[in-house]
Design goal:
- With 221 residues, the protein is mainly alpha-helical.
- It has one domain.
- It is built from ten helices and no strands.
Amino acid sequence: MDGSTLLLYLVLTAGAYLCGSIPIGVVVARLTGGVDPRTVGSGRTGGTNALRALGRKRAAVVVVGDVLKGAVPVLVARWINAGAAAEALAAAGAVSGAIWSVFVGFRSGRGVGTGVGTMLVIQPLAVCAAVPVFALAILITRYVSLGSLLGSASIAIAMLVLWAIANGPISFAYPLYAIAGAGLIWLAHADNIERLLHGTERKFDLGMLSRDTRGGGAADG
C-alpha cells in the first residue's frame, strides 16, 4: 500500500466517523423544539429512544437520518472508486461515530440504523435477509435490543453466505466489515445484553408506534 492510498483510507475513515457522529436525534429535537433524547430513557440518541422522547413522526426522521449517515460515506468511497477496503473502512468509521459521537461526549446511539445504511450500499440482500429476523424478534419478545442483536448477527451471516456463494467476485473486505460492524453493535449493546441475561430488560411498548407525542415505557435503544 503506497502513501497516497493510505492517506485516502485515513481521510475516508475520518470523514465517515464525523458523518456518523452527527447526533440526528439531538438535531431533530433542537430543530423542532422537542425533548432531547439524552434526557430520557436510555439517554441514547437513536431511533428507539427518539420514539420515546419525540414521538412517532420525528423518530422516523431520526431513523432515516441515521441510515443516511451510514450510507453516504460508503457511497462517497464508491463514487471515487476507492475500492472495497475503503468502503469497508468508511462503513466501520460511520458506525463507530454513531456509537461514540465526538459531538455529544462519545455516547450517542447504538449504531443499528447507521449499520443498516452501510449495508444497504454494500449488500442490500443481506439487509433483506435480516429484516424478518429483526422484526419477528421484536414482535415475539418485545425486546428491541434483542431484535437489534439478532438482526446485526443475521446481516453478518447473510453477507458471509453471499460471499461464499459468489466464490470470488465479492471482496472479502465486505463480510469482514459485516462481522466487525455486528461486533461494534453488540459492544454498544453490552448493557442491554446484561439486562437480557438477568431478565431486567424493558420491553417495547407497541402502542408508541401509534402516538405522535412523547411517551414512556419503550425499551432501551
